[in-house]
Amino acid sequence: MKKNVLRFVIALCVMSMFFIGCPGRETGPIILGPATDYDYAPISLGVIFPLSGAQAHFGVESSDGIILAAETLNAAGGIMGRQINLIVTDDVNVPANTISNFMRLTTQDRVGIVMGSSTSGATSAIAPVAQEAGIVVISPSATAFGVTQFGDFIFRTCFIDSFQGIAGANFAFDGLEARYAAVLYDQGADYNRGLAHAFIEQFTARGGEIVARQVYMSGTVDFSAQITSIAAANPDLVFLPNFLNDVALQAMQLRAQGINVPLLGGDGWDGVVGIAGPEIAGGFWSAGFAADTTEPQGVAFVESFQNRFGRPATQFAALGYDTMMIVADAIARAGTTDPQIVRDYMAATNAQFVTGMISFDENRNPIKSAVIKEVQLVDDVLVNVYRATVNP
């Protein structure tokens, strides 16, 4: 009850500070001097991601994707002739930081649209506040089902955990012909738990059996007890719906105990090829984008990202890029930066983006495909290779 009261008070503060002195609810700083016409003022957009800490990989990738998209748009004249001004902040994946960054962006910087955060927990922290204040929030990668349930101002660019879990279970059953699966997941994280539950439900519905279901808490580095139980169950697949750092350790320890069956996970594996050893080879994971795509729009993005940042594009970079492009598309069609009007135009999105054709369902979740990638060892280097597409 106290939490709900606190959220309501915060929301009222945001609403009152945002609307005072903000005629027409337009966003972006007014330029003083010769260029006083508000129509040509930059469009300021808020960005909140973990740019440091354990989840920095996801935040940096998404943030850089957004930056590339904004630079591309600005080079082409911006949106409605106005340049994009990104105000980028770091929440370190701490929900309290996400809230404070959101407050600063919407009150001091007067933004009406915020892109972020990376994880479901951090995004869920600002979702009810944003809904009360009438601020559009769109996350590239918050996959937990409940994120967009806070209201019609909350969107996401990624598919939800239930779809990803179903896609993984179907691939395990059909593509890998697995019938006896073990699951090891962080029970304290919304993402891991939601993905595990979706996989378990679909895999058993298909006729598979969950022979071991082991959990751990964030910060665990020794998984020997859980893996001993998994080994005793003799699975033909191990599902690891966890983030890359945990997955790298788990793969090493699973192989060390003689468990050599295929490993399968979700998009939290993104970046695992950069930190894991060869034991991750032969693993599979679901993602929102494959860098080895042959689609022209995707190929152009991968090349541009490599040229701009000097490293290969990941799915989180692609999702960040599309997040910015979805926002820009909605503003351009709306002809205004008024959050309420932009919200309505964003909900009506139906266009081709880097990660595929995107439209939104009634809960503002994108209707889009997922890809399955395989981790392969090529010339002693781990690489992700496209394996299959799973349609919604």
Structural features, described:
The chain has 392 residues and is α/β, with parallel strands linked by helices. The chain has eleven helices and 15 strands. The protein has helices spanning 2-19, 56-75, 95-107, 120-133, 161-175, 190-205, 224-233, 244-256, 296-309, 315-334, 339-347, and strands at 43-49, 84-90, 113-116, 136-139, 154-156, 180-186, 209-216, 237-239, 263-265, 284-287, 350-353, 356-360, 366-367, 370-378, 381-390. The strands form three sheets. Strands 7-6-8-9-10-14-15 form a seven-stranded mixed beta sheet, with helices on both faces. Strand 1 (43-49), helix 2 (56-75) and strand 2 (84-90) form a beta-alpha-beta unit. Helix 10 (315-334) packs across helix 11. The longest helix is centred in the first third of the chain and has 20 residues, at 56-75. It is globular and about 65 Å long. The protein starts with a helix and ends with a strand. Residues 1-38 have low confidence and may be disordered.
